[in-house]
Amino acid sequence: MSPSKQENEIKSSALELIGNTPIVALDRLYTGPGRILAKCEFMNPGASIKCRSSLSMIEKARKSGELKPDAPVVEVTSGNQGCGLAVVCAVLGHPLTLTMSKGNSYQRAIHMEALGAKCVRVPQVEGTYGNVTLADVKAVEKVGLNIVEEQNAYYVNQFNNPANADAHYETTGPEIWRQTGHHVDAFVASVGTAGSFVGISKYLKEQRTDIKTYVVEPAGAEPIKGDPITKPLHLLQGSGYGCVPNLFKFENMDGTLSVTDEEAVKYKNLIGEKEGLYVGYTSGANVAAAVKLLESGMIPENAWVVTLLNDSGLKYTPVPQEYM
């Protein structure tokens, strides 16, 4: 067969690297009974799960005509959505400006700008570096909306964009179902915009109504559970903002699980030390919650629990004071 007719596995762009991430069993970290299966979303080209929603939101905006070819794009981000959008906009040729709190890890700004985006870092209102509150996010949003107006740009608006959740209903959920051989007993995930939880839980419950789905919330910042906010500052960047996200839907949730900063750090470290995977704090929280669920008696002790490893731990390395 001539070289021109041979089949190959060459991808046409980084966009084809998004999704189809593997699932790994965390059998060394949790020895049972039951099993924890983790979707390796840090293996997306932007090193987080947000690549999926970035591609979905931009593609649907282009298809609808809301986003014209070569037109500028603006988004408010805690970092991961910005990195995902930077991947997509680099390939599709859209100038991208991102606003992000100075409380979010500086590595994310480096990542976004390395992909050609501009990152405007906004001073914090009440949080500290590594701890971002809802008030900090509102300040970032105000700056971002001003830039949208100045540039006459397309505003992605991840917290209110249905294509965010659609990405996970159309890709992540079906992948989980296929990769597990249709063996899912429970699903647990932290919530930022709620896109991943809403899309995945909806898809899984359509396959089998008895699959249990649980939201993971930072201890003291549990509005989905219905508790008052007593600890707005926590380590779970990109989640637990102290409000119920506009995309969230209660009908596909069976309950909530609370995780402390200490538990998130403990399991973040264990994922590295036992499984050889360097991930971020929400990933640690997700696995901590999966362990809690299996030990709680709320599901059968031999259940298979699926969760998400949202992003790479390389996004959280300590930063020198001069960059703060």
TrEMBL record:
GO biological process: one example: cysteine biosynthetic process from serine
Family: Belongs to the cysteine synthase/cystathionine beta-synthase family.
A Pfam family hit: PALP
Entry-linked InterPro entries: Cys_Synth/Cystath_Beta-Synth (IPR050214), P-phosphate_BS (IPR001216), TrpB-like_PALP (IPR001926), TrpB-like_PALP_sf (IPR036052)
Entries under Gene3D superfamilies matching the protein: 3.40.50.1100
Protein name: Tryptophan synthase beta chain-like PALP domain-containing protein
Cofactor(s), by name: pyridoxal 5'-phosphate
Transmembrane segments: none
Keywords: Amino-acid biosynthesis, Cysteine biosynthesis, Pyridoxal phosphate, Transferase
GO molecular function annotations of the record: transferase activity
The species this protein was found in: Arctia plantaginis
Domain of life of the organism encoding this protein: Eukaryota
Source lineage: Eukaryota, Metazoa, Ecdysozoa, Arthropoda, Hexapoda
